[in-house]
Amino acid sequence: GTGCNACYMEEMHNVELVEGDEGRMCVNTEWGAFGASGELDEFLLEYDRVVDETSLNPGQQLYEKIIGGKYMGEIVRLVLLKLVDENLLFNGEASEKLKTCGTFETRFVSQIESDSGDRKQIYNILTAFELLPSGTDCDIVRMVCESVSTRAAQMCSAGLAGVINRMRESRSQDTLKITVGVDGSVYKLHPSFKDRFHATVRQLTPGCDITFIQSEEGSGRGAALISAVACKMACMIGQ
């Protein structure tokens, strides 16, 4: 959705700030803030750095800025402008609307990737930006959208896979059966994000049997609720 966060059930004996070793505690990772100490530097592209520098909180929430729906459309817009500058798109000419920060909304990414193949939907979106795209332009724009949204799905998958693998190791289980509750407008509305996300998480978590359920509440308190409900459901169905 707009941002990104995760909660998970940690073994109590690993929670240093709370007394007692029995049971589990729901931990809010606030992982959207990951990267503030340079952990993501080698993964950040020039477009990510522009998004960060022009944001209200530069240097913060870097992981979220790579993944979140709030930023995905802007990253696509910056890539398109770079292609225009290199004379690879729109005959080297960008409209004033495309040059304006924040105009290319993330919903356009979903709509472009939902195009049936006749390019009509892509063409309509681009002409609304006062552009006159060729068929090749439409195909390139779709490829850009697919690349940006796929990276977001895979980066998000890496974070979740890290949490799941930690849970399996903490519980000393050869195979961890787990239910993951997920929410977010990008997850729910983008035509391919969900499938790419699921596939990459499973690829990165050998030895884990993962069931995904879709929730209706967002980050922060919602992430904790999703985690708790997912855990409860897993217990109810005997996982």
Automatic annotation (TrEMBL):
<comment type="pathway">
    <text>Carbohydrate degradation; glycolysis; D-glyceraldehyde 3-phosphate and glycerone phosphate from D-glucose: step 1/4.</text>
</comment>
<dbReference type="GO" id="GO:0004340">
    <property type="term" value="F:glucokinase activity"/>
</dbReference>
<dbReference type="GO" id="GO:0005524">
    <property type="term" value="F:ATP binding"/>
</dbReference>
<dbReference type="GO" id="GO:0005829">
    <property type="term" value="C:cytosol"/>
</dbReference>
<keyword id="KW-0324">Glycolysis</keyword>
<dbReference type="InterPro" id="IPR043129">
    <property type="entry name" value="ATPase_NBD"/>
</dbReference>
<dbReference type="GO" id="GO:0008865">
    <property type="term" value="F:fructokinase activity"/>
</dbReference>
<keyword id="KW-0418">Kinase</keyword>
<comment type="pathway">
    <text>Carbohydrate metabolism; hexose metabolism.</text>
</comment>
<dbReference type="GO" id="GO:0006096">
    <property type="term" value="P:glycolytic process"/>
</dbReference>
<keyword id="KW-0067">ATP-binding</keyword>
<feature type="domain" description="Hexokinase C-terminal">
    <location>
        <begin position="1"/>
        <end position="229"/>
    </location>
</feature>
<dbReference type="InterPro" id="IPR022673">
    <property type="entry name" value="Hexokinase_C"/>
</dbReference>
<dbReference type="GO" id="GO:0006006">
    <property type="term" value="P:glucose metabolic process"/>
</dbReference>
<dbReference type="GO" id="GO:0001678">
    <property type="term" value="P:intracellular glucose homeostasis"/>
</dbReference>
<dbReference type="InterPro" id="IPR001312">
    <property type="entry name" value="Hexokinase"/>
</dbReference>
<dbReference type="GO" id="GO:0050796">
    <property type="term" value="P:regulation of insulin secretion"/>
</dbReference>
<protein>
    <recommendedName>
        <fullName>Phosphotransferase</fullName>
        <ecNumber>2.7.1.-</ecNumber>
    </recommendedName>
</protein>
<dbReference type="Pfam" id="PF03727">
    <property type="entry name" value="Hexokinase_2"/>
</dbReference>
<dbReference type="GO" id="GO:0005536">
    <property type="term" value="F:D-glucose binding"/>
</dbReference>
<dbReference type="GO" id="GO:0005739">
    <property type="term" value="C:mitochondrion"/>
</dbReference>
<comment type="similarity">
    <text>Belongs to the hexokinase family.</text>
</comment>
<dbReference type="GO" id="GO:0019158">
    <property type="term" value="F:mannokinase activity"/>
</dbReference>
<keyword id="KW-0808">Transferase</keyword>
<keyword id="KW-0547">Nucleotide-binding</keyword>
